[in-house]
Amino acid sequence: MALYIIGGNEDKEGSCTVLRRFVEAAGGEEAVLIVIPAASGDPAGAGEEYRRVFTRLGAARVEVAAFASRREAAVADLVNILESSTGIFLTGGDQLRLTALLGGTELDRALHRAYRRGAVVGGTSAGAAAMGTTMIVEGPGEEAPRAGVVRMAPGLGLIREVMVDQHFAQRGRLGRLLAAVAHNPYILGLGIDEDTAVLVDDRQRFMVYGSGAVTVVDGREIEHSNISDAGTRPVALTGCRLHVLAAGYGFDLALRRPLLPEV
User: Fold this and answer.
1) Is the model's pLDDT at 59 over the cut of 90?
2) What is the CATH number of the domain that holds 144?
3) Is 211 an active-site residue?
4) Among this protein's residues, is 161 annotated catalytic?
5) What is the pLDDT of residue 155?
6) Active-site entry in 24, 143, 211, 243
7) Active-site pick, 10, 40, 85, 125
């Protein structure tokens, strides 16, 4: 089982380092990829864009599973194409649109079955945000963490006890990720920069790829928080741990400790 979580705005025209690694993880020249563009406001356009890129990067076959309603997400032909896939890719857009259309449908169950049998499930931007059991839906960046301004909702539940925020450094989202973690300090926060990804393996370890960084917010050892009575005032946190990891570094999600590059 593997998840490939991308912070959004990945290179699609140059060396395509981040997307190339997804194709390799899904089987390289033997990869059978299914693109699910349900999060996008233009699913046909988003599906075709990734079909073109993945084909150019050497995947054996790329198909687009486009649907516009929950009823369509139960169509047998659509569900069946996931059974032979080695990789499934969730595009960007709106994570609430994605979960509202996909969550709890036959296609969602097929997605989870494919993941359990070993298909790599990847997602970028909204597709990345929806990976966790809980996802961040909205909240302002570039300001101090505040309790009342971060909106969260149930995600797809592909990775437990982890919450993903995307476009992280580019949109100044550290404050909102800190606020989200303060709501439940046991949930690990992952802030993933643009053109950056993590590949999570079946040992619950991930490695970082791409041109940016991944910020890990670990609130398990928070000593004090005023989250319950802060209202819209800034949240106070003490004892929160933070790691910033570049390409070549990794993290053990089970042990909650960084993994340094081998030298």
Assistant:
1) yes
2) 3.40.50.880
3) no
4) no
5) 97
6) 143
7) 125
pLDDT digits (tens, 9 = 90+) for 195-243: 999 999 999 999 999 999 999 999 999 999 998 887 777 889 999 999 9
Bridge partners of 208, per DSSP, are 198
Would you call 118 exposed, middle or buried from its count of C-beta atoms within 10 A (0-12, 13-18, 19+)? Answer: exposed
What's the structural domain count of the chain? 1
Give the list of residues 6+ apart from residue 18 with CB closer than 8 angstroms, or none: 6, 10, 11, 195, 196, 197, 209, 210
Domain that holds residue 193: 2-259
pTM for this structure? 0.96
Look up 125 and say whether it is catalytic: yes
List 10, 85, 167, 194, catalytic entry: 167
pLDDT tens profile 124-161: 999 999 999 999 998 887 778 877 788 999 999 999 99
Would the CA dihedral through 5, 7, 9, 14 be positive or negative? negative
Angstrom CA distances, 115 to 30, 82, 180, 246, stand at 17, 10, 27, 26
